[in-house]
Amino acid sequence: MADVVSRRTFLIGAAAAFVARAARGQEPPADTAHGPTMSGPMDGTAYLPIVLPAKAQGAAPLTQEERDDLEHKLKCQCGCVLDIYTCRTTDFTCPVSPAMHRDVLTLASTGYDGREILIAFQAVYGERVLMAPVKEGFNLVGYALPFILIAGGGIAVFRWVRKRSAGPVVPVAAGPVSAASADEMARIEAAVRNDE
After folding, report:
1. What pTM did the predictor assign?
2. For a Cys-Cys bond, which of 49, 73, 88, 126 suits 97, CB 3.0-4.6 Å?
3. What pLDDT score was predicted for residue 185?
C-alpha cells in the first residue's frame, strides 16, 4: 500500500522505456505485448558501495533470520520493485541485489546492528532504498490517513443507517391547534364508555 511504486509511476516508467527503445530503433521485448514485466529494467550501474569503518565495540552479529528480515526492509536498486532478499533469491540475473547483500554481510560482520545498517543504506541511497517510508514527519499522514478515512466513512454510514431506521417523520400541522369543545369531549367520552 509501501517505498512502493504506484501503478501510475510504474506505467509511466514502462511507457517511457518503450518510447526510448522505439526511438533508438530497437525491437521491444516479446513480453511487453502483455504489459510491463514485474522486474522492470535491470540497471547494474545502480549499485553504490557502502563502506564504513569497523566498530571497536560492535553489536553482536546478526543471525540469519535477522539478516533476512533486514534485507526484506531494503529495496533492490536494479529497477525492480523487490526487496534485496527476494530479488537475489528469485532473479539470478540481477547484478545489484547480490552486491547489496554483500554490503549487509560486511556491515553486520564489522559490528553494526540492523538499525545502523538501515541508516547506512539510507544515507547512501536516500529514503527510496526503504521498502516502507520512515514513520516520521509528513509520512505519518500516509500511515494515518487510511484509518481516518475508514473511521469517518463508518461514522457517516452509521448516522445514515440510524436516520433511515428511525422511521418516517410525521409533519406537524402548522397553525394554531384548537381545543376540543365541551360538546365534542362529551361525545368522545360516551363513545369510549359504549366500547367498554
Report:
1. 0.52
2. 88
3. 86
Say how far apart CA 83 and CA 3 lie, in whole Å: 10
> What are the phi and psi torsion angles at 128 (to 5°)?
-65, -15
Give the distance from CA 102 to its chain's centroid.
29
Domain edges within the chain: 1-37, 39-129, 134-164
Which is it for the CA torsion 78, 84, 86, 91, positive or negative?
A: positive
Helix (H) or strand (E) holding 182: helix 182-195
Model pLDDT for residues 39-56, shown as the tens digit of each residue: 455 666 788 888 888 887
Q: Do the Cβ atoms of 133 and 2 come closer than 8 Å?
A: yes
The residue assigned the cell 539510507 is 122
Rounded Cα distance, 142 and 150, in Å: 13
DSSP state of 59: P
- Residue recorded with cell 547494474: 44
**Rounded to an integer, what distance in angstroms lies between the CA atom of residue 143 and that of residue 133?**
9
The cell for 91 is 532473479
With CA atoms as reference, report the closest residue to 70 among 133, 130, 5: 130
79-130 tens-digit pLDDT: 888 999 999 898 788 889 999 999 999 998 888 888 899 999 999 998 889 8
Residue 40 near residue 13, CB atoms below 8 Å: yes
